[in-house]
């Protein structure tokens, strides 16, 4: 009961802190998800557009007001909130009305932009489905906020459960939950975007791997498979990345086990998790093709043409690879000037693999999905933010285990490491 009480207190404390910014978190993509959710709730095209526009423009107005209040030149000036909101609504309605008049009325998302670009969001129904009951019952503003709080708080609880599943002491597991809230995971999960669900579902899959390693392969397989299936509905590329990375972790664990114990076969739970992970990879590829989801080349064109606002590139792959190299060179340069992220990754990897020599590789695999997601979108304007955020799960889970190693008595440490 004491552990449960602390888990609840941490989650509630985090939620209360979020009351300081009920609005102001929306991004340009948010209005697509909100419109999708309103449509699923029964709203017509114009009604869903109105709800999404009011939420997005209200968010921009709130941000403008906060910026004005701390501007050393304009802090005594009149509030710009009304003007910003009005200009935002006028611009968005102009685009929507023009596209509606042109006959773009067939999709579940109001026509804020081209149908080709909106198709990318139409194949991600998972987050709008989750959002729908909240915006239906509580309205758009509070519904979006409540859904975001629930997703973010659940992510911290899942971090606690993962660490407890690998027999970390309660204080260590609570440290992982707290780190989830204070590191970029918590702030990013609060944004009305898909990243909060991506983080939570990745943690659910890691929880399944931990349970399988502790003698519960059936429960573990169900969690890994269920998380992968849910990820497909949220962002199918992330489901593919997770399946590939977990398969790689299973291969590493199998090879290490074979080297350590000559002649020993692969442990049954590794076979189970590996089979589910391979199934997730194959299933994602086949289902995406069957449903005619946008292919990788379409994603490249979206990236290289600024969301299809410019002509398609004739040779997208060479340009993408050139951009990829330049991106990681610049990313590394910026990281070395402020190496907090790299240090956190290294320390987290050391703690996870050193303290839990088997499960640690699955933690590393989960974090690698964030790196793959960033590699698929080498956009330097958001390099350190939401695209790579899943990589922060490595310090969230690894740093508490490193703390356990530093604080545990030597005798008990040997027992934990051997496990």
Strand content is under 5%
Total E-strand runs: 0
User: What is the CA-based Rg, rounded?
Assistant: 23 Å
Distance between the termini: 26 Å
Shape: globular
Helix content: over 70%
Provide mean pLDDT, rounded.
Answer: 92
Query: What is the H/E string?
Result: HHHHHHHHHHHHHHHHHHH
Helix/strand-derived category reads: mainly alpha
- As residue ranges, the low-confidence spans are 410-419
Q: Mind summarizing the main beta sheet? A: none
What's the total helix number?
19
Give the topology.
Layout: H1 2-17, H2 30-40, H3 45-69, H4 81-101, H5 115-122, H6 126-138, H7 140-165, H8 170-182, H9 184-189, H10 195-213, H11 217-234, H12 236-260, H13 268-290, H14 296-304, H15 316-337, H16 340-355, H17 359-376, H18 393-407, H19 410-418
Helix pairs in contact: 1-7, 1-8, 2-3, 2-6, 3-4, 6-7, 7-8, 7-10, 8-18, 10-11, 10-17, 11-12, 11-13, 12-13, 12-17, 14-15, 16-17, 16-18, 17-18
What would you note in describing this structure?
It is a single chain. The chain has 419 residues and is mainly alpha-helical. Helices cover 75% and strands 0% of the residues. It is built from 19 helices and no strands. Helix 12 packs antiparallel against helix 13. The chain is globular and about 70 Å long.
Summarize the structure.
By secondary structure, the chain is mainly alpha-helical. It has helices at residues 2-17, 30-40, 45-69, 81-101, 115-122, 126-138, 140-165, 170-182, 184-189, 195-213, 217-234, 236-260, 268-290, 296-304, 316-337, 340-355, 359-376, 393-407, 410-418.
């Amino acid at each position: 009961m004491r552990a449960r009480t602390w888990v609840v207190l941490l989650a509630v404390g985090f939620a209360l802190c979020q009351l300081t910014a009920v609005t102001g978190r929306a991004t340009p993509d948010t209005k697509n998800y909100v419109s999708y959710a309103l449509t699923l709730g029964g709203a017509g095209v114009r009604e869903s557009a109105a709800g999404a526009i009011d939420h997005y423009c209200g968010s921009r107005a709130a941000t403008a007001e906060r910026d004005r209040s701390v501007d050393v030149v304009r802090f005594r000036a009149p509030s710009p909130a009304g003007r910003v909101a009005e200009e935002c609504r006028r611009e968005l309605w102009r685009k929507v009305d023009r596209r509606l008049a042109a006959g773009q009325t067939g999709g579940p998302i109001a026509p804020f932009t081209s149908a080709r670009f909106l198709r990318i969001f139409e194949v991600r129904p998972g987050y709008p489905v989750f959002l729908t009951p909240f915006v239906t019952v509580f309205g758009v503003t509070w519904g979006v906020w409540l859904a975001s709080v629930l997703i973010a708080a659940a992510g911290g609880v899942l971090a606690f459960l993962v660490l407890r599943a690998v027999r970390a002491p309660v204080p260590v597991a609570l440290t992982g939950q707290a780190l989830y809230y204070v590191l970029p995971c918590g702030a990013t999960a609060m944004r009305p975007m898909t990243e909060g669900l991506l983080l939570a579902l990745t943690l659910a899959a890691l929880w399944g791997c931990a349970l399988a390693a502790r003698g519960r392969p059936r429960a573990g397989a169900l969690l890994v498979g269920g998380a992968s299936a849910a990820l497909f509905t949220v962002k199918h590329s992330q489901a593919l990345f997770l399946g590939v990375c977990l398969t790689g972790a299973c291969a590493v664990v199998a090879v290490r086990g074979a080297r350590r114990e000559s002649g020993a076969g692969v442990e049954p739970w590794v076979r189970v998790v590996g089979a589910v992970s391979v199934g997730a990879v194959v299933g994602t590829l086949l289902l995406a093709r069957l449903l005619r989801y946008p292919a990788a080349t379409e994603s490249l064109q979206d990236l290289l043409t600024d969301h299809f606002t410019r002509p398609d590139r004739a040779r997208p792959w060479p340009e993408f690879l050139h951009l990829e190299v330049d991106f990681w060179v610049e990313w590394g340069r910026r990281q070395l000037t402020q190496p907090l992220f790299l240090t956190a990754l290294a320390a987290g990897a050391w703690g996870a693999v050193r303290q839990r020599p088997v499960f640690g590789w699955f933690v590393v695999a989960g974090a690698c999905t964030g790196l793959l997601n960033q590699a698929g979108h080498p956009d330097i304007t958001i390099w350190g933010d939401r695209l790579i955020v899943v990589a922060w799960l490595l310090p969230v889970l690894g740093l508490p285990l490193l703390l356990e190693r530093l604080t545990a008595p030597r005798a008990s440490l040997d027992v934990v490491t051997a496990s």
